[in-house]
Amino acid sequence: MGKKRKHTETEALANGNKEETAIERPKRTLLGFKDGCTEEENKETSVVTFRNKEKVLVTCSRRISFRYRHLMLNLVSLLPHCKKDNKVESKDAKGATLNELVELKSCSSCLFFECRKGKDLYLWMAKCPNGPSVKFLVNAVHTMEELKLTGNHLKGSRPILTFSSNFNKEPHWKLLKEMFMQIFGTPKDHRKSKPFYDHVFVFSILDDHVWFRNYQISCPHTGTQKIDRGDLEKMTLVEVGPRFCLNPIKIFAGSFGGPTLYENPFYVAPNQIRSLEKKQKAGKYAKKVKAKTRRKMHQLSNPLEVDEFADMWKE
Description:
Layout (H helix, E strand, L loop, with lengths): L6 H14 L6 E3 L2 E3 L4 H7 L10 E5 L5 H13 L3 E3 L9 H11 L4 E8 L3 E8 L5 E10 L1 H4 L9 E7 L7 H14 L9 E13 L2 E10 L17 E4 L3 E12 L2 E7 L6 H32 L14
Parallel strand pairs: 3-4, 3-5, 8-9
Antiparallel strand pairs: 1-2, 5-6, 6-7, 7-12, 9-10, 10-11, 10-12, 12-13
């Protein structure tokens, strides 16, 4: 058997081999490997790029009707960067609850569908946790299942956002335009999105209401009708859905509350509209009762003269 080497000899051989072959590896940092240059040089050479990490939490209140729930699910399918959560109780303290949920889900925006009396749908659109936030009344709701339109675009593809020229006229419309761009615009290179632009989100203002439409960009790709890239004349828009109309009520400085930045002077609550309709129906019945009493008073004040031939045939 051979003799064992001493421990000091093995260490000396290992150190000699390291000095001959191995090169000392630079230290690893959060920004890469530190190669001996100063921090100022690293800052100058490194390029800071902006990455859009926008995520939207979509949730609704309890006792929401099926039609409004389908509208919420349609929006979830259109926004690949959103996260869906369980139903939330719509009470006075819903703002604190929703802000906490947004923080737990690591989101930056929130779409909250609040249904009241099973008839009225309110949409809260908020930037969390510092605001601003907008409260809308949702009207003219038509879901994808209800419309059955012929348009069909790729799920998860990035939309083109288009706005009417009215959004640049007043400050509150400019604020709403910026919120729509941040919430409905799909971030670039998102893991659930597709790198295609094959549909358009249209936001237009008419009668102080925001109307939403979703169209597919359709163009022929085969045969003699195949078009070149950039040829927009043969492209057509086919509606996909859903459709809805947003009536802005108030714009708040904070998230789900805070100082009021804007209040719609033309807004009429749905409860007030229903009460006016009931009063009109009640007014019809009151008019009938008054007409009957007037008829009786007229008959009493103007009695008929006695007919002399009334009892002629009784004998």
